[in-house]
Automatic annotation (TrEMBL):
Residues 68-150 form the Lipoyl-binding domain. Keywords: Lipoyl, Mitochondrion, Transit peptide. GO terms for biological process: glycine decarboxylation via glycine cleavage system; one-carbon metabolic process; protein lipoylation. The H protein shuttles the methylamine group of glycine from the P protein to the T protein. It comes from Emericella nidulans (strain FGSC A4 / ATCC 38163 / CBS 112.46 / NRRL 194 / M139). It is found in: Mitochondrion. GO terms for cellular component: glycine cleavage complex; mitochondrion. This is Glycine cleavage system H protein. Its main location: mitochondrion.
Length: 173
């Protein structure tokens, strides 16, 4: 240890140990050090969720419990359909198998079934879409999910495409 460090250390320790009144402490938000838009809440960590895709342009996001999942259509499918005018939501309690229809989406251009990527039981449909079907064009891979299901066999998710493989199938079309 250098002579200067030996000399300063006792003073620094005493200064740091002193208790300052709270009125003199400047409170700083932890978000100030981050650029705008980079601060995220931890209520729904994406590291704990698994999102997979099908070749028929559906996505499934398995929650961290490994049993529940949300199903929707991809951005590519939403753009291909155009303006969505009606979304048929599934009834809670409906049993679906992998590749079976779990709902339907109708647009100005066409109509398309939404196929379940895995088998399970529908727990609920996204009621927002029954009132505002166009919301699916605004957030197809976010809040505009179509159905939430309780997955029968979580290992079925492993056979689906990850984002990179899904994008490769889009590039082929």
């Amino acid at each position: 240890m250098s002579a200067a460090a030996r000399f300063i250390r006792p003073f620094a320790s005493r200064a740091l140990a002193q208790k300052l009144p709270l009125s003199s402490v400047r409170r700083v938000s932890p978000a100030i050090g981050f650029p705008r838009g980079t601060v995220r809440s931890f209520s729904q960590s994406t590291f704990l969720q698994v999102k997979k895709y099908t070749e028929s342009h559906e996505w499934i996001e398995l929650a961290d419990d490994g049993k529940t999942a949300k199903i929707g259509i991809t951005e590519y499918a939403a753009k291909s359909l155009g303006d969505v005018v009606y979304v048929e939501l599934p009834e809670p309690g409906t049993e679906v198998g992998a590749g079976e229809p779990v709902g339907a989406v109708e647009s100005v251009k066409s109509a398309s079934d939404v196929l379940s990527p895995v088998s399970g039981t529908v727990t609920k449909g996204n009621e927002v879409l029954s009132d505002k079907a166009k919301f699916i064009n605004e957030s197809p891979e976010g809040e505009a999910w179509i159905a939430e299901i309780e997955v029968s066999d979580a290992s079925e998710v492993d056979g689906l495409l990850d984002l990179k493989a899904y994008k490769a199938t889009i590039d082929e079309e």
